[in-house]
Amino acid sequence: MLKSGGATAVSAGHESAPVNAVSATNDRSRGLPSLGLRVETPDCRRKTPLQKTRSAGDADERREWDACEMTALQDDDTAPCEGGGDSRRNGSTTASKSILFESLDKALVVIDIPRTLEESQVVPSQVPRRRIVSAEPPATPYSTPEPRHGVAYSSQASPSPAAQLAELMTTAAVQGALQDLASSYRGPFHFARFLEPQPPSIPGLPPHLPPTAEPLLGSIQELRGPFDASAPSFDLVVLDPPWPNRSARRRTDKYATVQNLHEMRRLLLHIPVATHLKPDGLVAIWITNKPSIHDFLVSPTGLFAAWGLEVVTEWTWLKITTSGEPLYDVESTWRKPWEKLVIAKRIGSKRPDSLKPKVVFAVPDVHSRKPNLRGLFQDILGQDFTGLEIFARNLTAGWWSWGDQVLHFQQAEHWSSIDDE
């Protein structure tokens, strides 16, 4: 049910087909015909990711590549197209087709961000039938200016010793992960992307709604009551808060940022996390690289303590180029090539044995689009775990999503069906 302030209901159309048998299931909102049974896979494995990156005007070639990649998605014994790569050749076998490589200990993983979002539009046992419109993947690292010696923290309070230690540990972990990946995997580092922009959404046209998704469209303050009254308990709660950021305030396509961490604490404590987290559930929060934000979460009087949680581990999303280089210099003072996901559990609850530190390598996509985490948490929580994403910008099949931009990337302009090309 789509709830927007007044809790107006909108029915969701399914957009899925069973694995290994593309069915005649129609999309209610667009009337999509069947893809038919298995199509003959074109010989698309010889091209590199950059050769395969789509541009406007190559409709016939796009159809061939999409047929190739969708066939690979339907058959575990079919290697993904070049530009994908088969994780089974290096490291462990993986269930998610968005994973290009995973080390045997699962400490290193290379994923494709657009593919994680495409997979999130259907339940885990089904095959995605839409491609998401993406940005050109960066081919070379970005340069960033460095401060003069001794003024790195002139405009902000010096980080605490704990925050400084956390940054040093992350830097060391990233450097070690880069060395380990270089000795284990040579690429490719992303799938071919669909770059052709779609026409703007027609006013009144419903967004694409994944099966069994529960979007709550509205602010935390507006929908706290309806959520508390109707939401179940969740195995995983993911948050991507609008952290205070001067540059973000100038953007109109983002959640409104709060002015300071005091306001952020008040906003986040308004979310009933403790009452809707299962006894052995996990909470995962995306954070920026500002040291005060790490302290805000994990200090003895921080947010996690207020929620009755304790840190279990941290994952690091390392942003890379198409050749696997860090997007920024790892040693840069002003800008780091990573974002961190801090994962916590209830104080005193059992720690999942398989939940360990992880470095996730991924080529970034359009602004504010993060990897969908469902596939990465399936090894830890099981295939059918229940999830809630707060401050979401897209929906996930089977999950609840809450925020005033939950439909941002669900609009028709962000998606293309193979049948439409």
Automatic annotation (TrEMBL):
This is Methyltransferase-like protein 4. GO terms for cellular component: nucleus. Belongs to the MT-A70-like family. It comes from Neonectria ditissima. GO terms for molecular function: methyltransferase activity; nucleic acid binding. GO terms for biological process: methylation. Residues 55-66 have a biased composition (Basic and acidic residues). InterPro entries: DNA_methylase_N6_adenine_CS, MT-A70-like, SAM-dependent_MTases_sf. PROSITE patterns: MT_A70, N6_MTASE. Residues 1-94, 136-156 are annotated as: Disordered.
